[in-house]
Specification:
Mean pLDDT: 92
Largest sheet: 5 strands, mixed
Oligomer: single chain
Shape: globular
Distance between the termini: 30 Å
Number of helices: 4
Strand content: 25-35%
Strand order of the largest sheet: 4-1-3-2-5
Bound molecules: flavin-adenine dinucleotide
Helix content: 25-40%
């Protein structure tokens, strides 16, 4: 059954675009082989990932990813059936927040991440999905 998993985690080190690229390099082929699609957002110390695919396959992949020492404090937000994929073109899309124009970054930060100096992702599933939708439409 086609399903998606949405989770948040804390990176063990400050997230650089090189770290995301390293993860994507491996994920691209591995996810393709498993017919898994999705998006990986990482910024500051926060990861947000959506995995789409067969229920059992993404469950196994999620449990495997959860053991990766590059992140911790993993919070599973949602694991539900879906009718269609949002990221059908991407075995795993990485999103580089720093590449957005400054005013768009600010808009996103004000809307989803609170007004503080530190970057935090929203912790509600609905807000995380809206955040991803807005990022990918920009
Ligand atoms: P491993 O022997 O664990 O690692 C293979 C390669 O992964 C290594 O050569 C190295 O490049 C890298 N690696 C693994 N652990 C470390 C580490 N601690 N420090 C530096 N490099 C390391 N994998 C997917 O296949 N699909 C995904 O969608 C996916 N998403 C991820 C999201 C996040 C936030 C993180 C942190 C990792 C993600 N991974 C994903 C990677 C996954 O956790 C495993 O590292 C990967 O699947 C390889 O596992 P392995 O047991 O086959 O090989």
């Amino acid at each position: 059954m086609l399903s998606h998993i949405v989770y948040l985690s804390d990176s063990t080190n400050f997230i650089s675009w090189d770290l995301i690229k390293d993860i994507l390099l491996f994920s691209d082929e591995n996810n393709k082989n498993k017919n898994v699609t999705g998006i990986l957002f990482g910024h500051s110390m926060n990861f947000l990932q959506v995995l789409e695919g067969d229920k059992a396959v993404i469950k196994n992949l999620y449990e495997h990813i959860a053991k990766d020492e590059r992140h911790q404090n993993i919070i599973l937000l949602e694991f539900v059936p879906i009718t269609e994929r949002k990221f059908s073109d991407w075995s795993m899309r990485g999103f580089n927040f720093n590449n957005l124009p400054k005013e768009k970054q600010q808009h996103i930060l004000n809307k989803y991440c609170g007004a503080g100096e530190e970057f935090f992702l929203p912790t509600e599933t609905k807000s995380c999905l809206a955040f991803i939708d807005e990022l990918t439409q920009l």
